[in-house]
Amino acid sequence: MKANHKQITPHYDVAILGYGPTGATLAHLLSLHGLNVLVLDKEKEMYPLPRAVHFDDETMRIFQTIGIANQLCKMLHINPGMKFVNKQGRLLLDWPRPQVLSSQGWNASYRFHQPDLERILRGSLQAKPNVTILTGCQVTDVSQSSENVIVHFIDKDNDQAQVITAEYVVGCDGANSLVRKQFDSDLEDLGFRQKWLVVDLLLKEDMPQLGDHSVQFCDPKRPMTYCRNPKNRRRWEIATIEGETDEDILKPERIWNLLSKWITPLQADIERKAIYTFRSVIAKRWVYGRLLIAGDAAHLTPPFMGQGMCAGVRDAANLAWKLALCVKNHVGHEILQSYAQERIPHVKAYISKAVILGELIYSEDPLSMLSAVNDEGTGQAKMKSISPLLGDADFFSSFAPFSKFRGQLLGQPVFRNGLRMDDLYGYRAVLISRNQLEFDKSAVLAPEFENSILLLLDKLDTYAVLLRPDHYILATAKDANETKELCDLVSHTFGDGFVKQ
Ligand SMILES: Cc1cc2nc3c(=O)[nH]c(=O)nc-3n(C[C@H](O)[C@H](O)[C@H](O)COP(=O)(O)OP(=O)(O)OC[C@H]3O[C@@H](n4cnc5c(N)ncnc54)[C@H](O)[C@@H]3O)c2cc1C
Is the pTM of this model over 0.85? Predict the structure, then answer.
């Protein structure tokens, strides 16, 4: 049985290949803009075991935008941070994550069970009339003309070959992406490649002694990671060493031996064990005419910052509103190049940092490496989260006169009644200005919200902020005159598309 029962139509606005977290998030966001979307996945059922175990506040904000944050909240564990310790257990580096709400209006770091998230993402898509989901359908070929993209797939239920067309195709089809292969895109390799064993355990009893922090055990002979996941789930990631075969390290007796310092089979069951090769690569090209890639299809990171899936979710948020503008003919598809130009430097900042952490974890002399990650400059070995800017994009170059804070993520106030700013604005462009010049009058603020929003403008020391649907700043204006000029530029660039998405 298909994931939903809608009739297939011959043509879609956007076809998404891959129903993982990136593809599902993208489908949600496109549907918010009323696009007609087809999602295809070769697997009949959702992958039942977790890979990702952590996501951040920006990712949660995107989940808020698509309306699943409250449901998800009940299944999360708020992460107090990560500690890096040496072979003797001495603290080398602390990466505390505040327990209060961050500037994004959510907690900085959450632990989760990936199947819970995917179930929620998928469950809420089923009800969307403009999204059709076909699972058990393997895409075998995509080819494009100037008019559209032709997608060939095999329905595995009956081995029947089928064809549809779409204005655009986005390959959210994972590390071995078929769509990326069409691009002939080289991968930039940032240099980390190591094979690790991942073991998920289900505790049979409370074990508070394991602690709530994630721990990186920096032992060059055998680095390991401990993750405190929700409820009774705990994970250890264990580096394999030279000469060790997969078969050997996957044996339960070998696993329990490696974990014997912390836990025994009397205290937990192994839920799953798998070997992954952690890599650090970014596709050099993400857009090729009407074909695009996102998520693991476009980049892979070692998991030490817990950012692989987060990056895919950010890709979706950056891309969906631009695709909507193209499909509705408000702008030409040059805007799609901005997706790659903005996202590549951003994701590269995260992957580069994860690579440095990987080097620290493997280092014979970790103390000598601390200055590379100790960005507080306090003399204490403390690390802060990074918030990279989006890369500069040619498409937005005319906004240069208004470029203060361009490419920065705007904060999200939480109002006294519990509502958050994005609950008012949704996945739309908004002009937030001191004289209430919002583009969309439905977003005009009730007085009880005004103070928090004015505080945001005060913090930036600006008169108006032009916010993109993905919550990044496109432009700021320093007074009412500049605000008027900015509005004219927006109309010139997007027609009324930016306003009326
Ligand atoms: C051990 C480990 C720990 C991790 N920890 C974290 C973490 O803590 N935080 C974090 O943010 N990230 C983490 N990640 C990374 C994260 O799991 C991935 O980045 C994320 O799952 C990728 O999602 P995706 O939707 O881009 O791709 P995928 O989840 O790989 O989905 C791709 C989909 O495409 C489908 N597909 C492929 N080819 C075709 C085809 N030809 N036709 C139709 N369908 C196709 C597949 O069936 C699949 O469903 C971790 C990864 C690993 C391995």
Answer: yes
